[in-house]
Amino acid sequence: MNSELLQTFLKIVEYRQISQAADSLYITQAAVSNRLHRMESLLGVKLINRVKGNNTISLTRYGQRLVPIARQWIQLNDQVDSLKEMGDYHVLSIATSLDINTAILSEIAPTTLMDDSLLRFNIQTTDDLNIYDLIDNDLADIGFSFVESTRHKIETRKIGQERLVLVTPPDSAYPDFVGTTMLSRYDEIMIPYNDSYRKWHMLCWEDKIPPFVRLDASLPVPQYFVNDRNWALIPESMARFFLKHGQPLRVLHLLEKPPVLPLIAVSRPQRINAPEAKKLAVKLQSELFKQQQDNDFFQS
Questions:
Q1: Percent of the chain whose pLDDT exceeds 70
Q2: Checking phi first, is residue 138 left (phi over 0); if not, alpha (psi -120 to 50) or beta?
Q3: Disulfide: which of 186, 192, 265, 273 matches 281 by Cβ 3.0-4.6 Å?
Q4: Number of Cα atoms under 13 Å in the Cβ half of residue 55
Q5: pLDDT over threshold 80, residue 197
Q6: Which pLDDT score, from 0 to 100, does residue 218 have?
Q7: CB proximity list for 64: less than 8 A, separation 6 or greater
């Protein structure tokens, strides 16, 4: 029996009028009458007494017997629907940088959730130092960062590394192989990834000169390509992401190699969700490796 039909019948019983039952269900009187006729046809009995000129209905003896059955049916149906809400869900809270989430984590998260119907992700994108704070304060189960920091009771593990690639607008006049002396700091879209990168950067360009724009993530980089001299160093996975999604840009070969970015998994091993966190870290590691195997054209 259709629960919708039973619910309509119970509304008729509650209000004793077709019109009020229709109003409570936000449907027309004709729809209520149609559902009632369908029920009576399915059961082969008459459920209500209709008196011409009288809006108030009364129940037949079959209708009276159906009331407790209908209520029990609805109750059982609600209990079945609530089983999903009563499931033993385990929520994994993840703190990550915007770039890692965009280009790597988003590639594995959907399939990971599909593989485990009781797993749920709470993903927070934030800056690298706050990732450590969230882990330190038990506000996240695992974090993924390009910054390695030492904190008491926090475990860090390098699960991979990212090459930085030089990107420019698609119509730039730069040659395929570029030296740092050919790149003006005034045209740079700068992302200060970590201390190692900043130290290398200071050796190549005068730090007192302001860049064209400074960002905290590389995701918005293409939006700041406003002239054909703009350039940026971004993680290889982000370059792959842009090209995959049809974002026009050129990937050039920088002669002076920048330091690689370590991909660090940050966690507190004693947390309840530690096993799920470790599994996710392994999948992230595999995804990064797979991407790098598929993107050898980024290498010089």
A1: 94
A2: left
A3: 265
A4: 8
A5: yes
A6: 95
A7: none
Q: Which of these, 192, 165, 163, 189, lies nearest to 177 by C-alpha position? A: 165
Structure-token pair, residue 1: 């029996």
Q: What is the pLDDT of residue 297?
A: 47
- Per-residue tokens: 27: 């449907």
Q: Are strands 142-145 and 261-267 parallel, antiparallel or unpaired?
A: antiparallel
Scan for tokens 């740079």, then name that residue. 188
Over residues 115-131, the mean pLDDT reads 91
| Confidence (pTM) | 0.69
Amino acid at 116: D
Alpha helices in the chain (DSSP H): 3-15, 18-25, 29-43, 61-82, 98-100, 106-115, 128-136, 195-204, 236-244, 274-294
Sorting pLDDT into bands at 50, 70 and 90, what band is 254?
Answer: very high
